[in-house]
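In the design runs reported in the main text, the only information available to the sequence generator was the tokenized backbone. The following block is the verbatim input for one such run; it is reproduced so that readers can re-run the procedure and compare outputs position by position.
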């Protein structure tokens, strides 16, 4: 059984298409929208789609943890509201979950952006390099992990940000596997903030986190 957990906050523009993408594959036993207090129509969209709605405050880490706690599946897939796995993702997930060697491994999708600009392709290449060298897929690449392994690791930490980096570090580079399919994420924030400035700011935040600064101190810079 596969439970898909989608953290949301004011996601009315992105959530419908993501839910359609998830439903089209017919892979999920359940879909859980873990909402962080949206004041737009996000909760209504979840209700109309017939998915479970879980309320959680305090940032994406608590949302992901709350969604996982409510899930019944023995496999969990965490997916951002603006991230859509591409055709073939169901087969890739099925193959991964059926392989006994993946009991204590986790999978992630190849990073892609919905922007034809050359800058988007450069950023995708940098993300591939980061994942290969450091074993650091971010949340916009999704995460597929068995319940047993997730519980063994202690689940997502209640962090307002860096919850994906924290989880990737606990999983470990050798136990992270790239799935043979892409997940396309909205490039809106890169177009808005710049294809150089946004990644540099993200890199600075991750560097500060690795130096030991708590996420609550880093959060104003990230936001």
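Verbatim output:
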């Amino acid at each position: 059984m596969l439970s898909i957990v989608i953290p949301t906050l004011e996601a009315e523009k992105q959530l419908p298409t993501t839910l359609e993408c998830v439903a089209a594959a017919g892979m999920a036993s359940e879909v859980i929208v873990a909402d962080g207090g949206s004041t737009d129509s996000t909760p209504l969209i979840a209700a109309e789609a017939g998915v479970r709605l879980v309320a959680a405050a305090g940032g994406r880490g608590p949302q992901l943890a709350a969604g996982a706690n409510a899930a019944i599946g023995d496999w969990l897939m965490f997916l951002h509201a603006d991230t859509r796995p591409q055709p073939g993702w169901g087969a890739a997930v099925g193959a991964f979950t059926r392989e006994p060697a993946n009991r204590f491994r986790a999978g992630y999708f190849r990073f892609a952006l919905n922007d034809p600009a050359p800058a988007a392709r450069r950023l995708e290449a940098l993300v591939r390099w980061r994942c290969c060298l450091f074993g650091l897929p971010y949340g916009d690449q999704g995460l597929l992990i068995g319940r047993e392994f997730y519980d063994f690791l202690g689940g997502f930490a209640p962090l307002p940000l860096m919850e994906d980096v924290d989880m990737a570090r606990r999983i470990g580079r050798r136990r992270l596997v790239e799935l043979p399919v892409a997940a396309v994420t909205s490039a809106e924030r890169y177009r808005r903030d710049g294809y150089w400035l946004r990644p540099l700011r993200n890199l600075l935040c991750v560097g500060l986190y690795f130096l030991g600064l708590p996420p609550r101190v880093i959060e104003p810079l990230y936001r």
